[in-house]
Design a protein that fits this description.
homodimer, Ribosomal Protein S8, Chain: A, domain 1, 2 domains, 7-stranded mixed beta sheet, two-stranded antiparallel sheet, 9 strands, globular, disordered C terminus
Chain lengths: 314, 314
């Protein structure tokens, strides 16, 4: 009613960063979070778009996140940047550690950023975009709250534990994936409950460990990982690498730490950066062209002549 | 009939290394392969036990593998060991590069071994055991021959692309996983065909891209990845990291290179090593104890008090 609509992503960015600042986030914390949220909206990723402003504000209102936190960047080892998020959100910690990560990857070939003591609600693809923009190959992962049972188990042990990978493609948008190792997003269960819909098969168990498609039973039971025992193995790796290895909480510990405050998960994050120029030197462009065939296999390579061959051998 | 049975793994080791040497493998190549094969037999991993001696001998008889190859180890960058397998099998290359990988991980915190120009038939867990024995956390992957279609696609592009992870557990066997990113092992399809059995649902498509449970149709079509689009994304990552990033062949290129010779895949391998002592210093033991709760969550941590909580929130 007379309000000006949002015509541009700049408008949206200003709105989001204003809202975040008014709820106690520093200019720096607010700016990078607003940038991530607008990127989600831009790409049609609703779950990490404007909607996330609410989770962020809610987390602030519960009073545990330090919206004024200034992350501290430490040169931990030749191949490791350590960033202490000081109980702020993860994104500013990532942004502050990125120059040192890039520099280390450029010297060593491979380097790690470990972020500690961060509240985390954002998608990892946003960070992978930052790495690929710098020509780096990246891999990132983090635990969350323990809502997911291991394959064959009934107790929730894992978080939704996302893993994300990025590959720069000069002249094209990067190849980036970012997926939860759980079979379904936590929020999807609640959405099914509200709509009175049953869950897909194979995504959850009830409190007695029996398969269920009832969202209410699933919430009091556990979610499952994608891909059975293989997804479960992957979720375990993510717990270990982005938990104890970097001296930070597992998903079970994050949920315990939360103690009913219902804040976003509090834990660490692990980000690997690999510099293709160090791996390949002047041969990089030729090898990168070969990689492009994977993204367009039909044009790059018709059905391989060798298919069917194995049928005739032991 | 009068032959002495094999009473010990030492007997078996001697048999396998004798056979391998008689088929043209150097003492060094034969020794490490025999060690891997006996480990497979020891652990009841039939697919990578004694049976593999045959694939190894067959590959030698086809005349493309250099059984006398001496791998060359290069100090490629502070965080990268490069090993040229010189067209030998992968395992001796790994063994030769391992001391430098360990040393680099110890200095940098994280390091990579890239193996190039290797013939590959062995499981990755054997290498992960070597890393965890040295107290290192490890991650390894490689492409193979392109028999696997991406999610939503019909042309085989990926190999069975295994990924393996290892976590040392002082006083216990390490936590190691090693799985193909394909939904089924290549050999399993052939075994189903021989037994006249149908394949499980969801593991293969026929030449027209339609789901099939007929092993013959699957061989002339393509295998699928585990876990749908997520497994497919993982297979893509493995192709990229252990292919073009290290200047070596993708699975499609490996199959083309083979040109009907029916030798084991020829490609590269990527191995990451992370040194927990560098990540955690004196705090390592405390964090490693926390990690143990993941392996015994019921004893280590009863059902988290927080479960069910999210049902009451948005």
């Amino acid at each position: 009613m007379g309000k000006k609509p949002f015509h541009t992503f700049e408008d949206l960015y200003r709105l989001v960063s204003d809202v975040l600042r008014r709820h106690g986030l520093s200019d720096d914390q607010g700016a990078i979070i607003a940038q991530a949220i607008v990127s989600g909206e831009r790409d049609g990723c609703d779950a990490h778009g404007l909607y996330r402003t609410l989770s962020c504000v809610e987390a602030m209102q519960r009073g545990q996140v330090d919206g004024q936190a200034q992350p501290e960047v430490h040169d931990h080892a030749p191949g490791i940047v350590r960033v202490d998020a000081k109980r702020g959100f993860s994104l500013l910690a990532f942004e502050r550690g990125l120059p040192m990560l890039e520099q280390k990857a450029h010297v060593q070939g491979i380097a790690v950023m470990m972020i500690n003591h961060c509240y985390h609600f954002s998608a990892l693809w946003f960070e992978l975009e930052k790495l690929t923009e710098r020509g780096l190959v990246g891999l990132a992962m983090n635990p969350s709250h323990s809502w997911v049972a291991p394959a064959g188990g009934t107790n929730p042990v894992f978080g939704t534990n996302p893993i994300a990978f990025g590959w720069p493609r000069p002249g094209s948008p990067p190849y980036i994936f970012d997926f939860a190792s759980s079979a379904i997003a936590r929020g999807e269960i609640e959405l099914h409950r509200r709509r009175g819909e049953r869950l897909p098969a194979g995504v959850a168990i009830d409190a007695r460990g029996q398969a269920t498609q009832d969202p209410v039973a699933a919430i009091s039971g556990a979610m499952l990982t994608f891909g059975g025992h293989k997804g479960s193995a992957l979720a375990t790796m993510i717990e270990l690498l982005a938990g104890p290895l970097i001296g930070d909480l597992t998903s079970a510990e994050s949920l315990d730490f939360d103690q009913g405050a219902q804040v976003v998960p509090y834990h660490g994050e692990l980000i690997l950066a690999l510099d293709p120029e160090v791996f390949l030197g002047p041969a990089k462009d030729a090898h990168w062209s070969r990689a492009e065939k994977l993204f367009d296999p039909v044009r790059g390579k018709p059905r391989p002549s060798g298919r069917g061959r194995i049928a005739r051998t032991a």
